[in-house]
Amino acid sequence: MNPTLVILAAGVGRRFGGLKQLEPLGPSGEALMDYSIFDARRAGFRGVVLVVRPETLELVRRHAERRLPDWLRVGYGIQPLEFLPPGVSEAAVRHKPWGTAHAVLAAERLLDTPFAVINADDFYGRASFDLLCRHLRRVGFSAGSTHACVVGFRLHHTLSEHGGVSRAVCDCDRDGVLRRLREVTGIRRSHTAIPQSDSDMGVTDSAIPESDPEMGESDPAMRDSAEPEADAEMHESDSTSTETDTPMGEPDPAMRDSAKPEAEAEMRESDPTSTESDSTSTESDPTLVGIDLDGSEIHLTGHETVSMNMWGFAPPIFPPLRRVFSQFVRRHAGDPDAELHLPTAVDHLVRDGHLRVQVLESGEAWFGVTHPGDRAEVKERILALVRRGVYPDNLLDGWEESPLSGSA
């Protein structure tokens, strides 16, 4: 059985100034998520679940009807503004969703097999979807699996020339297993000023209470990582399905090999769709700086592996994720701007021993639309891929309804 792709498309896009998930960026008016769906289908993903807000459902549905083939299975998960967990009788009036952890929960009823999660406004590249789909198929997730995976990108492949970005830096052990996610905000080259005030950089307190009767005592280090965040659009991801013939246990040698940059370099050499050569970033930029959770400035090399919200999960993730989110809402019910980002929730589950996450290194050069100034560059990069033959001029001309390799 092939995995399903979940796309988080419920964002408000305040810094961008509109619905960037539907922004026409391809030569025939394609949005970034259209290229992700196209790449995912070619990699072996089956159906698609789009997570949207109630007020944007019809806009997104109409876009999908115009841009996607009618034989492709598409479902819609609705992320409401309101959410009251048990024990909470009222909450502040909200004007934006509760964050990407809540968005994943909005897709729960549509998923009964392993799935992937991505952002609608990010370009991940064909090789990244190949890597994730192969991992989901080969490793599989048992019925009670507490395992997951995340595709990691080199930091210097994920920067914007038009403003600071927030990234979740991955700290892994020697086998590529995630130990923690460290949120760093305002990452930019040192000659770029950090904005002192920004409507999207306000406090988004994702703190988890120090103690949870349902989940046990939290790790003290986790409490350090749960300080208020400074970016309401932290990158994250979700989706479903995969074969379960191989139970998930300790990573076998083949799995560890798949997480190594050397193996992915070989894959890119044989894959003409790889976009690594499109990167305008240098291999290393010692002038990168960002803001740590304690507000101090830190220096980065650009070689750090970061999460761009490209995850692989199995349905057993939902009960613990729901508990973490309910706990968060109980604490922040009176804050209309509080959001729980998926990397923060995953970090909590990893530190408490409820989840094991394998980090898969991708050599692709990510790009996306965070700031309005990113629009022109993204259009140029997509056009370059079209000219190289990676994508057709009109994406609809490249769709083929054919049996997926490895499908059940």
Could you characterize what this model shows?
The chain has helices at about 30-45, 55-65, 100-105, 125-140, 220-225, 255-260, 260-270, 320-330, 340-350, 375-385, and strands spanning about 5-10, 50, 75-80, 115-120, 120-125, 145-155, 165-170, 180-190, 210, 215, 240, 290, 295-300, 305-315, 355-360, 365-370. The protein is α+β, with helices and mostly antiparallel strands and about 400 residues long. The strands form four sheets. Strands 4, 6, 7, 8, 12, 13, 14 and 15 form an eight-stranded mixed beta sheet that branches. The chain has a four-stranded mixed beta sheet with strand order 3-2-1-11. It has a two-stranded antiparallel ribbon with strand order 5-16. Strand 7 and strand 8 form a beta hairpin. Helix 1 (about 30-45) packs across helix 4 and helix 8 (about 320-330) crosses helix 9. It starts with a strand and ends in a 21-residue tail after the last helix.
